[in-house]
Amino acid sequence: MSRATRQDAPSAAPHAADHHDLIRVHGARENNLKDVTIEIPKRRLTVFTGVSGSGKSSLVFDTIAAESQRLINETYSTFVQGFMPTPARPEVDVLEGLTTAIIVDQQRLGADPRSTVGTATDANAMLRILFSRLGDPHIGSPNAYSFNVPSVRAHGAITVERGNSKTVRQSFTRAGGMCPHCEGRGTVSDIDLGQLYDDAKSISEGAFTIPGWKSDSWWTVRLYADSGFLDPDKPIRDFSEQEMRDFLYREPTKVKVGGTNLTYEGLVPKIQKSFLAKDREAMQPHIREFVDRAVTFTACPECAGTRLSEAARSSRIDGVNIADACALQITDLAAWVSGLDEPSVTPLLAALRHTLDSFVEIGLGYLSLDRPSGTLSGGEAQRVKMIRHLGSSLTDVTYVFDEPTIGLHPHDIERMNGLLLRLRDKGNTVLVVEHKPETIAIADHVIDLGPGAGTDGGTVSFEGTVAGLRASGTLTGRHLDDRATLKKAVREPAGALEIRGADRHNLRDVDVDIPLGVLTVVTGVAGSGKSSLIHGSIPGSGEVVSVDQSPIRGSRRSNPATYTGLLDPIRKAFAKANGVKPALFSANSEGACPNCKGAGVVYTDLGMMAGVSTTCEECDGKRFEASVLEHHLGGKDISEVLAMPVTEAEAFFREGGARTPAAHRVLTRLADVGLGYLTLGQPLTTLSGGERQRLKLATHMGDKGGTYVLDEPTTGLHLADVDQLLALLDRLVDSGKTVIVIEHHQAVMAHADWIIDLGPGAGHDGGRVVFQGTPGDLVEQRDTLTGRHLAQYVGR
């Protein structure tokens, strides 16, 4: 191949294009930002630090990344834009030097039952092509190996209009890999009919025990009562065989109820469509509790949970079918693919090997491709999203990461740092929101926001190098080199919680005793079996309060006051003080502004163009009807109370005319978990992942359980806030609780009374208890990865 030679003389002056080496932000005012002006160097690694709520996400995600994506969307036609998200322009005066932004956030992958790690990446698609080329026997195209594609067969007469039209018979067949019995889900459901109704009662007497099915509900209960198929006054246990069949399993049938045409359907298929077809995690808590109680899921007996048809499972490469390949740990699958040698698919094998090696490199080699994507943690989901970018040929783009070290053992953080540096060295701008000092240390440029959170934040406290941050005197700078020390004395346990023969997922018949009445930390590398041991072995009950990483779901109408139940005693206090109904003080009920329906803003749909939202002119964004705001408690109306930060509200409801003990208790818990800066009416959709985790913790602190299980409570915590968390854990233990923490943070390990370390590796290389004892013993022995990193952390 010939290659042209360059003979250009070196230029004396830099090219004009070379001057655009900064991203300039002037006058950013998104959320709590206060006219922030910064300059971010391109093709460098910039880390944004600051306490939770200081404005990091508002600056990086809601301003820089949002405007970049908005500008990219505007390059498409108006028709195409109508099918895309339409974010409004952020509140900022000037944004210059933006490049295409690729956001790799902590949003969990879709929890659709047909979504797996393999389908969420390109790995499954490449495997299907590989089996369609090399599988023996050959059963068809790549679709024949997909559990999302059903087999289709059709035959009949068609008319061919060519010259003299004539009718011919044709047959059509498409081979799909979906198991016809479970429809590619891998599980089948069985409904406990006893949880749906009380068979001693009639429908008229309110036999249904399904949430939301009230006795006067015309669209459910009245439909069954007036359908003509059943006797509504007869107890269900006395139904005839035909009535029972119609009641439970009748196919959809048109009926007329009260002059309205409706569709009657048997109870079982109706429940399946109403509840089982929805994402369990998206359900309200009481609905999810009902589903867990009424429905059992078992592996499909036809496909043994593989989701695939018999034909797809019969096709093999070197004795391995595609279901076996997807069930392998990715490290083992990568080794199997590397052993394949077939010149006809060499490029495909190279691409597949690269993708699988990326999984291993990013610390996810312990996963399998058939792992449901909805079961991944936020940190795992973020790293899965990173895989497609590691081998990308794109350069000069802006990568935006939201705490990429979440859920990582100190050993794995080193590997993540290397990946971030690789992306930078390819000529990309890398922006990272992070709290971990190990990642802050590798930054080329640091921007520290603060000095506090909420209204006390939103300004740039420091901008410069890591060395400059250490000497800056800011909150982050002062705590950057903080190192916890081992406790001089640990608490004595008051008994033990025995776990015997734990074998969930990768656990290997684990026997372990968890001490009661002390602070126990369960640690180990990602994928070593920590969550499987604790969440899988400690039964959920009234005695166990589990605060896991499942996301809080809420609309823009949901806020800390509604989520924690704080608004109920506040509404009652307002109602009592003014002699009116509590419903008046709800923006979602009778007190809502009639113009904006209690939203505070009016949304205008502009069809093909981006919709706009404007502050409601009737209520000025206060969400309540004007007459409601005439009622006061302690000199404040309800909108002023909802605009208070937690710390101010805690003092307001503590004493005086507004004294409300029930509200004060909730507010005290919110302050204890470090959320004192949040306003009571701030939408949940604006909270960070760490803030939502601590909001959940504050809610559960009022529970009566004797054992608390916390899953990585340091998620999203600033270095300065870790001490406050440790003090909170101490208060829980000193009040007689047993606290079990799944955690990687060395400060929490050093503060523990007892440590259980799992490993030594991840996946099938883990699943064993490699150490249990005090933190001091772990540091002295240094036999495990955790021990060595903890010893280094405490300076031993």
Automatic annotation (TrEMBL):
Q: Which GO terms describe its molecular function?
A: ATP binding
What is the top-level taxon of the source organism? Bacteria
Keyword terms of this UniProt record: ATP-binding, Cytoplasm, DNA damage, DNA excision, DNA repair, DNA-binding, Excision nuclease, Nucleotide-binding, Repeat
PROSITE patterns linked: ABC_TRANSPORTER_2
Has UniProt tagged this entry with the keyword Ribonucleoprotein? no
Query: Which residue range or ranges hold the ABC transporter domain?
Result: 490-785
Intracellular or extracellular location(s): Cytoplasm
Statement: the UniProt record of this protein carries the keyword Nucleotide-binding: yes
Please name the SUPFAM superfamilies in this protein's record.
Answer: P-loop containing nucleoside triphosphate hydrolases (SSF52540)
* UniProt cross-references to PANTHER family, sorted A to Z: DRUG RESISTANCE ABC TRANSPORTER, UVRABC SYSTEM PROTEIN A
Query: Could you say which protein family the record assigns here?
Result: Belongs to the ABC transporter superfamily. UvrA family.
Q: What is this protein called?
A: UvrABC system protein A
**Source organism lineage?**
Bacteria, Bacillati, Actinomycetota, Actinomycetes, Kitasatosporales
